[in-house]
Prior knowledge:
The structure holds two protein chains of two kinds. By secondary structure, chain A is mostly beta strands. Chain A is about 0% helix and about 55% strand. Chain A has no helices and eleven strands. In chain A, a hairpin with a 5-residue loop joins strand 9 and strand 10 (about 100). In chain B, strands 2, 4, 5, 6, 9, 12 and 13 form a seven-stranded mixed β-sheet that branches. Chain B has a four-stranded antiparallel β-sheet with strand order 1-3-8-7, with no helix packed on it. A two-stranded antiparallel sheet of chain B has the order 10-11.
Amino acid sequence: GENVEQHPSTLSVQEGDSAVIKCTYSDSASNYFPWYKQELGKRPQLIIDIRSNVGEKKDQRIAVTLNKTAKHFSLHITETQPEDSAVYFCAARGSNYKLTFGKGTLLTVNP
Amino acid sequence: NAGVTQTPKFQVLKTGQSMTLQCAQDMNHEYMSWYRQDPGMGLRLIHYSVGAGITDQGEVPNGYNVSRSTTEDFPLRLLSAAPSQTSVYFCASSYSTGEGLNEQFFGPGTRLTVL
């Protein structure tokens, strides 16, 4: 089955800096790659997603890049703010409809 | 729309007891899933369903049963609770378009403790 590795497990940045979280996946048939943000005690919420026919997608301060050849994708957050502090999860969905998640990255933005 | 709802929010069980976690969605989504979330382990898929009457196993199905008799409901049954099943459980639903499956919407979660 699909295996998703996520790095780093923790990330601390200063407010205004950029943050990058990287994920790799194993199933070359995977075609949908969402990123979720989860605040303490809350449910995961989608912040951005990308499909396998697109190399990059942006939404204001958030961008995701996908390299299908290398089977990795990354989340980029620019101009970080304290409210960006949360756990971020990447995921990959293959042809069997299953969504496999990475283990998460705890992002802390220091004021 | 209420979205995805789960009951109860919290539950404490004794080892060996059984119970059902309820999940419902009012968005007419075909796909529904159950995940468990443990510290440092991310979200692990327990069971999922691609439509009423169709279910399949995920990554960690042992000790859990599901059924999908309607599009709206997807209950998760713990047959004989064990301390290893202490976790936060999330139900989720999603829909498909011509591009494939789309955003997965999560319920608020059920925090289960097994003593």
